[in-house]
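#lab-general

N.A. 3:47 PM
ok so I finally got the sequence cleaned up, no stray characters, all 112 residues accounted for. can someone with queue access submit it? mine expired

B.Y. 3:52 PM
send it over

N.A. 3:53 PM
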Amino acid sequence: MSTMTAAIRYNADGLVPAVAQDADTGEVLMLAWMDAEAVRRTLATLRATYWSRSRQEYWVKGETSGHTQEVVSMAVDCDGDTLLLTVRQTGAACHTGNRTCFYTPLTSADLA
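B.Y. 4:20 PM
back already:
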């Protein structure tokens, strides 16, 4: 791996959170997890590849649903513990069928 990918700090499970953001609108679409192999596959193919913690396997976004993510760029944050993928999203990003996974607002009323 390059010096830049070596800067990624994985957690105790060997994973790092990866935020997917729409390259055109800036909209935050989803958060998933990657290990070093998922990072390698994503950079090699420019197809967002994640690690499923529940299924314990790799998944290429949209491989079964058709709701793909073409990676435009990938960056690591200043601490090395989070990735940002800017993507061209085809279809919904969320498994619920919503464009983004962040569609449930929270307010101070939710504290009660």
